[in-house]
Design goal:
This protein has 447 residues and is of the alpha/beta class. The chain is built from 10 helices and 9 strands.
């Protein structure tokens, strides 16, 4: 009896000796570490599986382009969650192995040190308290990440919805503008007198209205026969006639715009579109550039093609501020020439009823300012209905020289339609041709 009491006293004494580390202490410490790691793995694995399910739920909301990468992220979360859950299960089995000596026996060991376990229980509670604090922090961090992910998904969804609505609005506005252009084409076809055209005709008046769906529409029809077509350079005068050449007309127009290096520019444009290789800026010149390219030797289709021609640069077409209306050589080239991408055997004429004075002077030639002034004054009183009426303003030989380049009617028009709602505007541009019978067809359609 006394020996048993001495052994019990020794056990109690050893339990209060914190400097001594027993095998039980080591097992308890190892068990706490394994439990902490297992708990953390369980939490992380659960959240990874939760994220995988969340990505799966958000996958249909993604665009088809983004679905593939989001599917990869979903499987990555699912794989990570499976790994951590298996790790937690394995660590739980390992804890029982450490404490009980077997993976499957939970209560098969003898409880000889019950009093010592009661003394160490306080330490276990403190350790669990610290462990639970770390797990709580981990849970809060993961909840923050989940909230951020949900907010990001919501913002991305709203952005896609906004872009989709903008796309639908764009289609709606373009359709309305296209309808407005067709209505303008019908006005051109319904012109009362197709033998002559002026800027006072009904088709030349801008129209602004609101359609039943609330779209504001503004439509203008511009007469392209007011300007000189650069593609006229491709047509050479008939040999043996006194016809003024398109090259000479372009030289006078460039000089009138204050461009006094007109000869090389006009020559380069002609070399770019003519069919021969006679000239300084033909195929050999452009193929020697870096990078090399070939002139098309065809009609000009767009304004951007001009920028590939040597000595033709974008500032050449910039509009300049004119100090007064009588200032000479200050006209804008962009308001003097045009491009009509139509194959033909004769030049596109300039309409003497709608052309500005500087274009008329360029066609008639410098030195005929008086004829231009008389022509301008006469058309303000009444439109010029035939070319025979020009004999009252210019000599007969001059009319014979410029005959192929002038007319009293227009055949080509540029229609601009603007469709707008609050915060969004779309423009549609169409180049159309009206035949002598009144039929109107589209040559170019630009959004």
């Amino acid at each position: 009896m006394l020996a048993a009491l001495e052994r019990a006293a020794l056990i109690v004494k050893d339990s209060f000796d914190y400097t001594k580390v027993s095998a039980l202490h080591r097992k308890q410490a190892q068990n706490r570490r394994l439990k902490k790691i297992a708990t953390t793995s369980l939490v992380v694995g659960g959240f990874c599986v939760f994220f995988a399910l969340l990505w799966l739920a958000l996958l249909p909301m993604r665009s088809p382009k983004d679905q593939e990468i989001h599917r990869v992220i979903m499987f990555a979360y699912l794989g990570a969650g499976t790994f951590f859950l298996l790790l937690a299960w394995f660590l739980t089995l390992l804890r029982h192995r450490v404490m009980h000596g077997s993976f499957f026996r939970r209560r098969g060991y003898r409880r000889k040190t019950r009093k010592r376990q009661q003394i160490l229980r306080k330490r276990d509670r403190d350790a669990r308290r610290h462990s639970h604090g770390g797990v709580l922090i981990m849970v809060l961090v993961l909840l923050g990440l989940t909230t951020a992910l949900l907010l990001q998904a919501q913002m991305a969804t709203r952005r896609r919805v906004s872009l989709r609505q903008a796309g639908l609005e764009q289609v709606r506005l373009r359709a309305a503008a296209a309808d407005a252009i067709r209505a303008a084409m019908q006005r051109l076809a319904d012109d009362e007198d197709l033998t002559f055209d002026t800027l006072e005709d009904d088709w030349a008046q801008p129209i602004e209205h609101r359609d039943p769906t609330g779209i504001e529409l503004y439509v203008t029809v511009e007469d392209e026969n007011r300007f000189f077509d650069l593609n006229n350079l491709r047509i050479e005068p008939v040999p043996g006639t006194a016809t003024r050449s398109a090259h000479d007309i372009l030289l006078d127009l460039l000089n009138g715009c204050g461009i006094f290096t007109a000869i090389p520019k006009a020559d380069n444009i002609r070399d770019w579109i003519d069919d021969d290789d006679i000239g300084l800026r033909e195929r050999a010149f452009y193929m020697a550039l870096d990078p090399p390219y070939e002139p098309p030797n065809r009609w000009l289709y767009t304004w951007n093609e001009l920028l590939a021609i040597d000595e033709i640069e974008r500032p050449l077409f910039d509009r300049r501020v004119r100090r007064n209306i009588t200032e000479a050589f200050a006209h804008n080239l962009i308001d003097t020439v045009t491009l009509i991408p139509v194959e033909r055997g004769s030049p596109v004429p300039v309409n003497v009823n709608t052309a500005p004075p500087n274009v008329l002077l360029g066609v008639l030639g410098f030195g005929n300012e008086r004829a231009v002034e008389m022509l301008q004054g006469a058309r303000q009183i009444a439109p010029i209905r035939s070319l025979e009426a020009l004999a009252a303003f210019a000599p007969e030989e001059l009319i014979e020289q410029v005959g192929p380049y002038v007319d009293v009617r227009s055949s080509f028009f540029r229609i601009r339609a603007y469709a707008s709602v609050p915060g969004h505007t779309e423009q549609v541009l169409a180049l159309v041709q009206r035949e002598s019978e009144g039929n109107v067809k589209i040559l170019q359609w630009i959004f």
